[in-house]
Amino acid sequence: xxxxxxxxxxxxxxxxxxxxxxxxxxxxxxxxxxxxxxxxxxxxxxxxxxxxxxxxxxxxxxxxxxxxxxxxxxxxxxxxxxxxxxxxxxxxxxxxxxxxxxxxxxxxxxxxxxxxxxxxxxxxxxxxxxxxxxxxxxxxxxxxxxxxxxxxxxxxxxxxxxxxxxxxxxxxxxxxxxxxxxxxxxxxxxxxxxxxxxxxxxxxxxxxxxxxxxxxxxxxxxxxxxxxxxxxxxxxxxxxxxxxxxxxxxxxxxxxxxxxxxxxxxxxxxxxxxxxxxxxxxxxxxxxxxxxx
Length: 293
Prior knowledge:
Pfam family, one: YycE-like_N
Helix content: 10-25%
Domain VOC: 8-127
GO molecular function: acyltransferase activity, transferring groups other than amino-acyl groups; lyase activity
Strand content: 25-35%
Distance between the termini: 63 Å
Order of helices and strands: EHEEEEHEHEEEHHEEEHEHEEEE
Structural class: alpha+beta
CATH superfamily of the largest domain: Gcn5-related N-acetyltransferase (GNAT)
Domain N-acetyltransferase: 120-273
Low-confidence stretches: none
CATH architecture of the largest domain: 3-Layer(aba) Sandwich
CATH class of the largest domain: Alpha Beta
Mean pLDDT: 91
Largest sheet: 7 strands, mixed
Protein name: Putative N-acetyltransferase YhbS/putative enzyme related to lactoylglutathione lyase
Number of domains: 2
């Protein structure tokens, strides 16, 4: 058995069309340290940049033309947190750098993908994946565009039709522009009380804090509107939802029996984790005034 090679260094080399422009992109916009360069080496000019971990990126101009390759050929640069990624992405966006959706949705969950001046794909990703690189915003488009998300939390088409267009909706959006979750707020008979009517997160992103961010964004919005209480109703059989809402500060308020019936448009025999889905549990959470913890 031969011993493993003891590599001493590594370098990634890219041909570029305009060395000055590419040098500005990697040095000034991305902030990679420059390690020198060369001119007139057998028809090539080049610049070296230090990559994290001690490797190098070499950019050259010469006989070879840039060939960016496939959508999966990436240079991934890690920043410490999602906030750092957002700040760097905003800086690139302000400079007019083109952002593109990632071919692999994994990179949209943890970062943003940009094209360098020659079309090479550069991903800015969060090393700390405690939260996805997401932002929460008000949805101002057609509600029909979000029906797929509402259907993740509503088994009755009849019931969904009755409230889909009500109230307002917050959406969680990836760096690539994909909606991965939503939260709907509607009014009640009491102007100071709102109801969280429907909420869902795409299955592959559950358990990553997206739902919690939607709830907190909703509470902040309601605080600015002088609301004092937020209600939510969920199936008594759905232990996961009950656990989630209590972790977000909600407390039990009431139980409403025989809500999920065929008469209300729900299919017969609904179960959650083997528990018949029949009754509905109401919970509430106080909305703090602005400035209160």
